[in-house]
Amino acid sequence: MSDTTAEIVICGAGIAGIAAAYHLAVRRGMTDVVLVDERPPLSLTSDKSTECYRNWWPGPGEAMVALMNRSIDLLEEIARESGNVFRLNRRGYLFATADPERVPEFLRRADEAAALGAGPARVHGSPRGEYQPAPADGFEGEPTGADIITDRALIRRHFPYLTEETVAVLHARRCGWFSGQQLGMYLLERAREKGVRLIDGRVERVDTTGGRVRSVTVAERGGQRTISTGRFVNAAGPFVKHVGRLLGIDLPIFCERHAKVAFHDTLGAVPRHAPMLLWSDPVRLPWSDEERSELAGSPAHRHLLEEFEAGVHGRPEGAGESQAVLLIWTYDVEPVEPVFPLEVDPTYPEIVIRGMSRMIPALSAYFPRLPRAVVDGGYYTKTRENRFLAGPLPVEGAYVLGALSGYGLMASNGAADLLADHISGRPLPSYAPAFRLERYDDPGYRALLEQWGDSGQL
Ligand SMILES: Cc1cc2nc3c(=O)[nH]c(=O)nc-3n(C[C@H](O)[C@H](O)[C@H](O)COP(=O)(O)OP(=O)(O)OC[C@H]3O[C@@H](n4cnc5c(N)ncnc54)[C@H](O)[C@@H]3O)c2cc1C
């Protein structure tokens, strides 16, 4: 590449842009790829993640599961070739309920997931069930699909730390977590070895004279640079809509605030070998009688006595002596403009720890004196049905890789691989149409959107 030309310019060095650069340069042999970011790589949303992955996704259709299976295949391949530098594990996602009426739903979801390609459903309804727990580390040779345990003795044997009221658990198996930062840095290093250049600057203009990409103007510390190029990828994370406007395109995207709580679990309430733990029932926060009457008298805090929606979840983080635990609970999903730094309700850590104590009662030992918690977060950048965008835009040479919502770490390789197929003109996988912007032009798809059910957001 010379300073003023490139085969392709990618805006955004979050996990999406970096994975795109990697798949274009390393796996498709494209030379002359330029990545532009006004911040350090992976520093806006991609380092705020809980870093989990799952092939556990609802329909309609098989696209989401197929894409995630491909993405996880790629993660495993890269883990093998790198000596697992990003510590991919396969502990699974453990959904639990204390509501007997939810058990048929667990069974239905497991059957649906099996039909969509996530792997078989295995039901364990007796104390002698052949349930095989997940190892803490590694990812090879593990089952796919899901185990549903409905026998309470078997649940207690394997998960003694869950509330005794638990009546069923669903353990989704092609799931776990990894270090997103290590994965991103590995992909970036491999891409740079193949000539990818990283420019520290802000994409301010894309020249699309005549309906096709001609150049990209970048504001750098030392001034402006215009890069002549025929191809441009918008991978601007929460700013994907803003960067879309530089191309004259209004992308159907919005942002939601999501934050996670990290604290040192000095009392060891969450076992270090635990899988990702998710409570599937709505929760009323536990308060003492005194706290309850105090909250009832405070208009600003009265809502803390109401029922919160299902979905509080968390997991242990880190190896060795680490005591870190991450918790997350999204009960406020109002669309907002992405503004940094993110503002988070100061009561969030207490709400999440109290909420999670419904699932793991040992956490209630922290109520008298809450642990010091670090809260960080960012935005889920989403389409209305929570399926990302990867593919061409209606300006020749322009592409998008965005709206990766709360699953961009796990989906980044599959999504970037798909984008690279579009750009390099390779045959496209069957799931490609589900992630193109053009899907919204299809009246059949628009009708489907009107009755879309579960978006898969946790
Ligand atoms: C609390 C939380 C928990 C999450 N948990 C998970 C999880 O468990 N698993 C999972 O897979 N995902 C998770 N996610 C989602 C995941 O973090 C995101 O989907 C992913 O990081 C999005 O990556 P990105 O590259 O699209 O965006 P970003 O990481 O935001 O990168 C976009 C980049 O574009 C740059 N940019 C924007 N505009 C310009 C411009 N004009 N010029 C130059 N540069 C520009 C920005 O500086 C930024 O660096 C979570 C997210 C949050 C907030």
What can you tell me about this protein's structure?
- By secondary structure, the protein is an alpha/beta fold.
- It is 25% helix and 24% strand.
- The protein has 10 helices and 22 strands.
- The strands form 4 sheets. Strands 4, 5, 6, 7, 13, 14, 17, 18, 19 and 20 form a 10-stranded mixed sheet that branches.
- Flavin-adenine dinucleotide is lined by residues 11-17, 36-39, 44-46, 48-53, 202-203, 235-239, 243, 258-260, 377-378, 402, 404-410.
Helix content: 25-40%
Oligomeric state of shown chains: single chain
Taking all Cα atoms into account, the compactness measure Rg is 23 Å
Number of helices: 10
Distance between the terminal alpha carbons, to the nearest Å?
A: 43 Å
The count of β-strands is 22
Strand % is: 15-25%
What is the overall shape?
globular
Q: Cofactors and ligands present?
A: flavin-adenine dinucleotide
Indicate the mean pLDDT. 96
Low-confidence stretches: none
Main beta-sheet annotation: 10 strands, mixed
Query: Structural class from helices and strands?
Result: alpha/beta
Features:
458 residues; alpha/beta; 10-stranded mixed β-sheet; globular; binds flavin-adenine dinucleotide
Short characterization:
The protein is of the alpha/beta class and about 450 residues long.
